[in-house]
Prior knowledge:
The chain has helices at about 10-35, 40-70, 85-115, 135-170, 195, and strands at about 120, 125.
Amino acid sequence: MTLKxxxxxxxxxxxxxxxxxxxxxxxxxxLGLTMGDLPNGxxxxxxxxxxxxxGLTILALVALRVAWRLYAGAPAPVPGTxxxxxxxxxxxxxxxxxxxxxxxxxxxxxxSAAGYPxxxxxxxxxxxxxxxxxxxHEAAEGAHEFLFWVLxxxxxxxxAAALYHHLFQNDATLRRMLPAxxxxxxxxxxxxxxxxxxxxxxx
Length: 203
């Protein structure tokens, strides 16, 4: 497998970005949906800090993924894909990238407006991007939650489309985002010896 994308499939780096971000989104969804119900205490504070750190990580990974895609390009559409499906896929990908930027940024605004410190895995602090404001905090909180559910809907639609292509269309839409299987070369059959092919010239 090559590192760079080809016309036929996504390269190893694009695949790594894709699946790492998928895993982190699943972790973030679980934390975001459960941490609010935790009892107040050090564990809740640590879970919120973890949520923020993973959100910042996703923001950085998405920025790197977009930069890599601009450099490495993208595979050509799967042969036989209708133009309307190509356009829907392009719009969906664009919206996914936009949401993966907007959701962490809205969380950053929410945190800044509340006056909370923002650290990345307790290694260093990040600056506030807005002053303390109850109105901004409420608006950012509403946007953060709304954008999350839009992301859930788009991710489910994206996954359903990939499975449809894989199971019913039997094309390479999903396979080219998975590691390629190594094929074992089979030895060519031995050619017959001259003595086997030569006609019998004895009388």
